Amino acid sequence: xxxxxxxxxxxxxxxxxxxxxxxxxxxxxxxxxxxxxxxxxxxxxxxxxxxxxxxxxxxxxxxxxxxxxxxxxxxxxxxxxxxxxxxxxxxxxxxxxxxxxxxxxxxxxxxxxxxxxxxxxxxxxxxxxxxxxxxxxxxxxxxxxxxxxxxxxxxxxxxxxxxxxxxxxxxxxxxxxxxxx
Length: 181
What we know:
Blueprint: H1 2-11, H2 15-37, H3 40-56, H4 68-93, H5 109-128, H6 131-141, H7 147-154, H8 158-180
């Protein structure tokens, strides 16, 4: 896979390969982070954090644990949830609601088009999943629930939830790879 090669080259310090990886995958990561945070400015900042972490730890990527997009999405989800929780904790500490800065720069038309295409690919992939797999992935990635929280909410054994998440992610990866062919 081309993305694995770019990540491997990035681990060796190849900035051009990393730039290609960023260009190819950042729309997907941004879409996921934006869905979790709901704020474009925060989503852009977290997306950049994801790629800083990916650059620093590219050598730690283990293809046996999943694909490059899965790895990046996991980092993105984790960073977004950290930001979400941190933002909530800060709001509780402060007397009033947190005022957010207005966004002064809109994404370019090319960026919007790329993000739109990534969203379409992910949405199409989600539609291919069986309902029980789609449900746990949405709870995990878009509502930020842990697998234990999902098991409790759905009244299912933890092992069943873990299996559904794993199978769903594998199906998503296959569908997304087919779409990018």
